[in-house]
């Protein structure tokens, strides 16, 4: 187990070094940092002095090592656009993105897994066909279009729909912003205010829908495959109840490969929340990254890439450890390998 963890940690360090190299390359190949920091009236001598002071004339390896050392300490420099520390900007935006991603992940897991189990156990049921149709829509429609449609229905046309029906059916929900927040130290949360919770509904559904349908289809596929295995037939032959077979044996083995895919999707929720944040003007890291691209704010772009890469590495490491704990076959293989040695 210790060797497994050490090996995964070394692999994670290599991944972060590669991500750091890509992020650092932005400073070298995406414009000139000096042009983004000074005005047109700056003389060549002043530009040269600033370049020397920032260490831009140093060899590539020296600059890369300095960047990694500063990044490890949480120092990503000064934003060209905001003229503030990038670390402070990221710290202000991280709570919004993580709260949105957390709610979306909870929705995707706690709705997608039960729907997948149900459609796997009742393949030809009417409700299963409805779930499969909804999942097909969720996978086919792009995220930004889902967000726009939700804004149209629950933000623009809700009053007209209720007036046409003659009763209140469609609630009117916030379509932009984060609502009111409460400051808990450096962390700002919208979970403790009504407007903050209401503001989370539409963007979290938008972000969760694709992941939810993907998890549902994955669980359904794995469930159907497990139900055809011999040990499930033997369990039924022993006289076990359907509940014991389906949930005690089939579901347990179904979730083993699902853990890996789900972990990767949780990382994707954080990484690709930028589309949802752009549609709903959610003040998170994704919206900051989009603005940084428009303004060629390279320090913010590099910091975002490093942070998202770090989230992916941590999530994948946790998933690998969970996979090792949940699947006894891995532990058995390790024990057999150790015995042969």
Write the layout of secondary structure elements.
Layout: H1 2-29, H2 33-37, H3 44-53, H4 60-72, H5 86-121, H6 126-140, H7 143-156, H8 158-165, E1 182-184, E2 187-189, H9 194-227, H10 230-237, H11 242-271, H12 273-280, H13 285-295, H14 298-326, H15 328-340
Antiparallel strand pairs: 1-2
Helix pairs in contact: 1-14, 5-6, 5-9, 5-11, 5-14, 6-9, 7-8, 7-9, 7-12, 9-11, 9-12, 11-14, 12-13, 13-14
Question: Care to describe what's here?
Answer:
- By secondary structure, this protein is mainly alpha-helical.
- The protein has a domain of 216 residues: Orthogonal Bundle (MetI-like fold), CATH 1.10.3720.10.
- The protein has 15 helices and 2 strands.
- It has a two-stranded antiparallel ribbon with strand order 1-2.
- α7 crosses α8, α9 crosses α11 and α12 packs across α13.
- It is flat and about 85 Å long.
- It starts with a helix and ends with a helix.
- The mean pLDDT is 83.
What labels would you give this structure?
341 residues, mainly alpha, MetI-like fold, two-stranded antiparallel sheet, 15 helices, 2 strands, 2% strand
């Amino acid at each position: 187990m210790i060797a497994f963890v050490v090996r995964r940690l070394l692999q994670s360090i290599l991944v972060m070094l590669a991500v750091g190299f890509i992020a650092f390359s932005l400073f070298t190949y995406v414009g000139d940092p000096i042009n983004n920091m000074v005005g047109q009236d700056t003389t060549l001598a002043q530009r040269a002095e600033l370049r020397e002071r920032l260490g831009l004339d140093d060899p590539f390896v020296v600059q890369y090592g300095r960047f990694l050392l500063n990044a490890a300490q949480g120092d990503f420099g000064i934003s060209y656009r905001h003229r503030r520390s990038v670390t402070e900007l990221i710290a202000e935006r991280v709570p919004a993105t993580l709260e949105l991603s957390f709610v979306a992940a909870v929705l995707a897991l706690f709705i997608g897994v039960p729907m997948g189990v149900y459609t796997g156990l009742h393949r030809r049921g009417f409700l299963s066909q409805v779930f499969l149709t909804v999942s097909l829509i969720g996978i086919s429609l792009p995220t930004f279009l889902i967000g726009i449609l939700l804004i149209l229905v629950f933000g623009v046309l809700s009053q007209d729909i209720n007036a046409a029906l003659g009763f209140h059916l469609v609630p009117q929900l916030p379509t932009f912003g984060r609502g009111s927040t409460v400051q808990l130290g450096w962390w700002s949360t919208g979970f403790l205010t009504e407007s903050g919770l209401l503001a989370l509904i539409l963007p979290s559904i938008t972000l969760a829908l694709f992941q939810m349908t993907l998890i549902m289809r994955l669980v359904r596929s794995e469930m159907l495959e497990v139900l055809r295995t011999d040990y499930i037939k033997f369990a039924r032959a022993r006289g076990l109840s359907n509940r014991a077979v389906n949930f005690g044996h089939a579901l347990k083995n179904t979730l083993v490969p699902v853990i890996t895919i789900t972990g990767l999707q949780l990382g994707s929720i954080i990484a690709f929340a930028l589309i949802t944040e752009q549609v709903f003007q959610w003040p998170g890291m994704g919206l900051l990254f989009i603005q940084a691209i428009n303004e060629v704010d390279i320090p913010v772009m590099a910091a975002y890439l490093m942070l998202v890469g770090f989230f992916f590495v941590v999530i994948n490491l946790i998933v690998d450890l969970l996979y090792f704990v949940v699947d006894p076959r891995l532990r058995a293989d390790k024990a057999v390998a150790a015995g042969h040695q």
